[in-house]
Specification:
alpha/beta, nine-stranded mixed beta sheet
């Protein structure tokens, strides 16, 4: 397992000790009254004699006058010892965990009745928040878009995603509108009805670009923002048309990150970007990641290249450039290398991260791996040694009009739906791994994700 050192549990102990030192108060009980004073005090009722709540919310013990006789020569005051009431210093547990996976496509697994999430370790449901990218339409309505690859799964896929423990499903990608606006609305409605946040898409642009907030612990709020740099023709949302949040509306996306940061303790940006099958991030990924972090995001979780890319953690901020294919069609090569990203927090502070390597099995479902050449390759790439595993690129993103909110924005699909003459996946992976079915299985991935 690839990891970075987590902050030792000693920190939590020190924090608890600090809280105890700062919040423990000593309450001094006054001396009992003299006999003269006592005679002037009206008898207490039963309720008055019982312990009462002090202003600080703690119960104070009843004070009983002394029974020592009083003489005329001298008045003897029996003093009771001052009593200190120290409250419990146990601080609330604010630690929590986020698990993240990459692209999820369930058109084949759902039709076959396969649960592709069953073998994942740690299970997504074990996290406080789990997030993936839903790379498909979940609907039975609509007509296929005029593009080379269109993906969709049956409505039951939404229920299976929720049952797996997914809390947030990114829809800002180049397949969310594969079957038109009605199918996108169905996808959103089905996910939300099952308790899964549909992020980065909506019936209007206000819905698509809006951030969503989860209170993960009492008083600890986590905000999510979604956007895509891979934007097919007609996919961006407008106020009169369903669609996705386009990262080329950069000012709008960054403004929303700032608003989210003002309302939440942690901000997670989920972004679809990059060049397919490139294990190292391109310049525009790095530039946009910097802008997101600079405007208030704490972590950026990326998808689209269909391969893993490095995870970078610095100064309490994290960028996972690509988490690869998480649930997909069968892959035996580098596009079948995947895993679960784990990020650990204490309240609003990011403590560190770890990565749990997995491989896609014959059903395209992720299963854990702990050794071997592919395990080593996963560790290399995620740790930052990505160049040695860099295959030839497929389609490079072309820059759309930066401020357009119409169909001109999606100039050439921005790097995701190119019409490659050959299948780069089969051209390289079959040759190196002698997998006879790789060529047939890789077509949807070659330029479609």
């Amino acid at each position: 397992m690839v990891g970075r050192p987590l902050v030792a549990s000693v920190i939590t102990g020190l924090a608890i000790l600090a809280v105890a030192c700062n919040t423990s108060h000593v309450r001094v009980v006054p001396l009992p009254p003299t006999s003269t004073e006592a005679s002037a005090v009206a008898p207490q009722t039963a309720s008055e004699a019982a312990p009462r709540e002090s202003e600080s919310g703690r119960a104070a013990g009843a004070v009983t006058p002394s029974a020592t006789p009083v003489t005329s020569a001298a008045t003897t005051i029996a003093a009771t010892a001052a009593t200190a009431i120290v409250p419990s210093t146990t601080a609330p547990d604010l630690t929590w965990t986020l698990l993240a996976g990459g692209d999820v496509l369930m058109d084949r697994s759902e039709a076959a009745g396969v649960d592709p999430f069953a073998g994942i370790e740690p299970a997504l449901a074990s996290a406080d928040i789990a997030v993936v990218n839903a790379e498909m339409v979940i609907s039975e309505r609509g007509e296929p878009a005029d593009k080379k690859y269109v993906f969709r799964a049956s409505p039951s896929a939404a229920e299976r995603i929720a049952a797996a423990g997914v809390d947030v499903a990114g829809l800002a990608n180049n397949h969310a509108m594969d079957y038109g606006p009605d199918a996108l609305v169905d996808t959103i409605d089905l996910l939300e009805a099952n308790g899964v946040i549909a992020l980065g898409a909506g019936a209007t642009s206000s819905d698509a670009y809006g951030h969503r907030v989860i209170e993960v612990r009492p008083g600890v709020r986590v905000a999510f923002v979604g956007a895509s740099m891979v934007v097919p023709l007609g996919f961006p949302a407008s106020e009169t048309r369903p669609g996705i949040a386009s990262a080329y509306q950069r000012d709008r996306v960054l403004a929303n990150v700032r608003v989210a940061a003002s309302e939440a303790d942690v901000v997670i940006a989920v972004v679809h970007w990059g060049i397919e099958r490139m294990t190292c991030p391109e310049g525009r990924q790095r530039d946009f990641a910097f802008e997101l972090l600079h405007n208030g995001a704490d972590a950026v979780i990326g998808h689209h290249p269909h391969v893993l890319q490095p995870v970078v953690f610095d100064d309490g901020k994290l960028v996972a450039y690509s988490l690869g294919n998480f649930v997909w069609h069968y892959r035996s090569g580098i596009t079948g290398d995947t895993g679960v990203l784990q990020i650990d927090f204490d309240g609003g502070e990011m403590l560190g991260w770890s990565f749990h390597p997995h491989l896609l099995d014959i059903n395209g479902a992720p299963v854990p791996v702990s050794e071997g050449a592919r395990f080593d390759r996963i560790n290399d790439i995620v740790s930052g040694d990505c160049a040695r595993h860099q295959p030839p690129p497929t389609t490079a993103a072309r820059e759309p009009q930066a401020d357009a909110e119409d169909e001109a924005e999606s100039e050439g699909e921005a790097g995701g739906e190119g019409e490659a003459a050959t299948d780069p996946d089969s051209a390289t992976e079959v040759e190196s791994e002698t997998e006879p079915n790789e060529a047939a299985e890789s077509e949807p991935e070659a330029n479609g994700g």
